[in-house]
Amino acid sequence: MSSAEIPARQERGAVPGARQLRELFARDGAVRIVGAHNPLGARLAERAGFDGVWSSGLEVSASQGVPDTDILTMSELLGVASSLVSAVGIPVVADCDAGYGNAHNVMNMIRRYEAAGIAAVSIEDKRFPKVNSFIPGRQELAPIAEFCGKLAAAKAAQRTRDFMVIARIEALIAGWGPAEALRRGEAYAEAGADAVLIHSKDENPEEVLRFLSSWTLRTPVVVVPTTYHTVTATELAEAGAKMVIYANHGLRAGITAVSETFASILREDRTTAVEARIAPLATVFDLQGVPEQKRFEAQFITPHEGRPRALVVPGGAVAGAGPRLLEEQTSALRRAGIESVAVATAGAAVAECPQDVTPGASHTDAAGAVLELPGGGAGRTVLVSADSFVEAEPLRRLIATDADIAVLVDVTAGTGERPGALGLRLTSVARDGRRIGGSEGGEVAGRAGDRADGEFAGAAAFSAAGMALLRRAAEKRRANSEQADLAQLLDDLLADGHQPRAVEIASGWLELRTEDDVHRATQMLAAREAAR
Q1: Which is catalytic among the residues 51, 68, 162, 485?
Q2: For position 345, which CATH number holds?
């Protein structure tokens, strides 16, 4: 029974992946899919640009440390295939060996795989239990009539028109020759297969190319160039192949890379030699979906409403905090009473941040980081520039203010505005080396001209209303394709007439504008820790 002949009463809702796969088969050129054995591998395949994912029986079996000889059960393999579907937005095609038994088993398998969102299944014409095609020795084929019965049963069991059943021909693998392969393929197409897969373990693609040149039916042909890898997907498509499966290359690449990494660690007695060639933690977090999870957390998880949060944003200086100082800054923020800390680094991966830091997206400017930061019911938001280090005590004073915008201002910086610093005029007045504010403290009256009462000390706090103002300033910068650090965004707010509260300090922060600054600060913090 062909897919077009499935009764309408069985159409219980389209499977998105199956519809995608049908559309891919309808377009010009080869459909290229690649093997995976877990959701992480599937996401890597999707990001690389493959059209779909092959839920590889060999890869899944190898990942469990057992041979690919029908040792794992259908439920175990279905569990993996289902997890791939949940992880990606491209079709998943499942390797279903010989169908896990006779036609009854096949019908049960089809119903369960289709219900799980699998786009297509591949069933091979071997006797159950099967042996992997590349393992030397026994390769027993099922009689044509028996396998055609499985295919007909599979098509009768499916519920949607788009779901595909691929009949895998193993005649070349078993040494029965091209004529038998062609005879079987034609019979399987007649039995209702949506595609046939011609499999070969020859290092030369000629026997597959001969099969393609002899194939006259409209049923599409799938190929797996594991051993005949010199031929391109374009050449195979030109010869008549519709889908090309790179069935196990992720697994094999991973074995090599992991083996080399482990050997290097033992040989070098540390991981330094491998750090540059392994994925940073930022990539791991990204593949896990952590940024999306953090957005959902801000939107839906309410226990943290009203609590302050912090974001370390890229600074304007070339240097900026390194990993050690980011860890110290995070610790200082938490000592100040902020549990939710995110870090957006300047051009570098978030992996440079300590492992317990909530990762954020990577940015090149503070404006981008501000726009990425979720809104919602958070309390005060503290922003710290990455080219500053601020201790816990000034941060506590900053959080304690109730102003919509509050900034740390160092009032000991002298009267001249230094290059690169944001000099500020304050409403407080100086007398005998001390500053006297109003009943609610001093405010920032605006940017300084030739003389400054103090300078921005690298941190600011915002209420929800204050964050809305800051977002508008960031949006203006982005609309003009301009990058901006935190000091520039504050300067924009001042230019718009806003007067932030000034939290005046005389110590408790460091500038990190040069590599020497970073080095000295790191040494100072290390010495302080050693003295404890």
Answers
A1: 68
A2: 3.90.550.10
